[in-house]
Amino acid sequence: MPELPTHWLRDNCPCAECRDPRSGQKLFQIADLPEDLVVSAQCEMNGNLEVLWSDGHRSRYPLGWLTEAGDGDGRTEADKRLWVAADFRRGLPEAEWEAYLADPAEQAAVLTAVRRSGFAVLRGVPAVERQVLRVAGSFGFVRVTNYGELFDVRVEPDPNNLAFTSVAITPHTDNPYRDPVPTLQLLHCLENSATGGDSGLVDGFGAAAVLREEAPADFAVLTRTPVPFVFRDHGAELRADRPLIDVDPLGRIREVRFNNRSIGTLRGSREELDAFYAAYRRFAAVTLRPELQLTFRLDPGDCLVLDNTRLLHARTAFRQDGRRHLQGCYADLDSLTSTLAVLHRRTAALDAIAELFAGEGAGEYLGEAVTMAEHMLQAAAAAEAAGAAPQLVAAALLHDVGHFQGALRGRDLMQGQDSRHGDSGADWLAQWFGPEVTEPVRLHVAAKRYLCAVEPGYRERLSEASEYTLMVQGGPMDDAQAAAFAALPGAADAVAVRRWDDQAKAAGAAAPDFEHYRTLLASLMR
Questions:
Q1: How far, in Å, CA of 329 to CA of 130, rounded?
Q2: 222 and 245 in contact (C-beta within 8 Å)?
Q3: Per residue in 92-108, is it b (16+ CB within 10 Å) or e — as a string?
Q4: Which CATH class for the 77-339 domain?
């Protein structure tokens, strides 16, 4: 392994003394580290780099993490798919609204399209007012502006913006006079019976990349010239001085602001103004190239979500022989990106649980005639058949996941040692699920002991293996223990899970596979 920078390595120590275990935030300031800090000793052990520091601190770093490539925030051209109109000849990135709401994978695909390609269209959003706010709320928060929490794009009798007329609108980004600019725009079609009024998009990052290739000097001018963007009406006066093309410190395109209607008066020398207008005109001409312009029609129920820091959107003129009414709002990419990251995190968690079912789950289940996975899937099927609430179906499915945390614990239980698999399973699941799922898992062993104490005939119905584990786990409760258990908030749920647990030991019984429960589990994850 190459030598690593001392203060970088120590600054990234993941231990609980250096980072809060809940938030991951650092518990020290960089100036707290000794100036003369050095590594006293280090070794590789069990997939980790173990480091002893000169101040006595010990750190442990996963080797895989140390060799990971760096990544960015996903906002620059490096993480985008630059496109031309022909790239969508087979169709736009789109999804049905109901599928988007019901399926986390479908939602992740839509949000990924916005992040990578700059836009997506949701079809079948109810064509009623204010639904655009629900779309924004599905992944983030509405950005309220001087237009309100939402705005109507239709012909107005006294418009304060050309968008509220029937004239053609050339490719542009919205609100360039704000800093920060709203990074997402949503447009939901309520009605579109007019002739014309088609929507258009241009990949602004793609257009800027074309300019950089064809006229690098002009590209440079547009990245270093602050342009005054201005908006004024009776209730607002807004201004932001920003370049048309913004790049990050590495020179990668990060933001495009392009709106001829909102550019104020640029001041400068004759040479500076000549250079800017030559570059501005060239860039404008690039954005109008037919091969870059993607044109489509929004029908009632369609909602377009677009990256307002990247895509230029446009509209053809329309005749007022019918009505064209869109409702729009603004939101922000950071919320969308956060939601997408959480979806990916949940997907990774569900994949990890699925692997346990497919791997260790194929093993013997404590002397019963079913495997561990078959037992848990049968328990979930019993809960589902009983019409149980989703959280109880999940608890029934996952109640024995504590046995999966290393086969040794499962063997210990059958060898006379209580593995406390309810506690270990609940603690592990608490990474993603709330107590409505984890507490029935935690208490399902206690529920067996409780039922043996209070329900005549229950114990006699236990399988031979379950009778054996009952004694290992403490045997039937006494009266005081049973009363204390019954008073617990989650006792009734735990008893319900216990009964489904008891039913789930039939060799060859049909039950849905793990994938059947994936969407249900995802809906319960925190």
A1: 9
A2: yes
A3: bbbbebebbbebbebbb
A4: alpha beta
Cβ-based neighbour number of residue 456 at 10 Å? 6
Per-residue model confidence (pLDDT) at position 23:
82
**H or E element, residue 230:** strand 227-233
pLDDT at 409 over 70: no
Q: What is the pLDDT of residues 332-364, one digit of tens each?
A: 999 999 999 999 999 999 999 999 999 988 887
Residue ranges covered by each domain of the chain: 6-66, 77-339, 359-524
DSSP 102-162: H-HHHHHHHHHHHHHHSEEEEE----STTHHHHHHHTTS--B-BTTBSSEEES--SS-SSG
Are 154 and 164 in contact by the 8 Å Cβ rule? The answer is yes
Under CATH, which architecture does the 6-66 domain have? 2-Layer Sandwich (3.30)
Distance in angstroms (rounded) separating the CA atoms of residues 195 and 89: 23
> What backbone phi and psi angles, to 5 degrees, belong to 382?
-65, -40
Strand 94-96: give its sheet, edge to edge.
Answer: 94-96, 119-123, 303-307, 184-192, 324-331, 151-153
In 3D space, the residue among 491, 473, 469 whose CA is nearest the CA of residue 482 turns out to be 491
Rg (CA), the chain: 30
How many C-beta neighbours within 10 Å does residue 130 have?
Answer: 12
pLDDT in tens, 266-300: 999 999 999 999 999 999 999 999 999 999 999 99
| pTM score, whole prediction | 0.81
Beta partners for 232? 237
**What are 271's two structure tokens?**
């040479």
Mark residue 148 as left, alpha or beta (left: phi above 0; alpha: psi -120 to 50; beta: remaining).
left
- CATH class of the structural domain 359-524: mainly alpha
| Three-state secondary structure call for residue 226 | coil
φ, ψ at 181 (rounded to 5°)? -75, 145
* CA distances, 80 to each of 255, 292, 354 (Å): 12, 16, 31
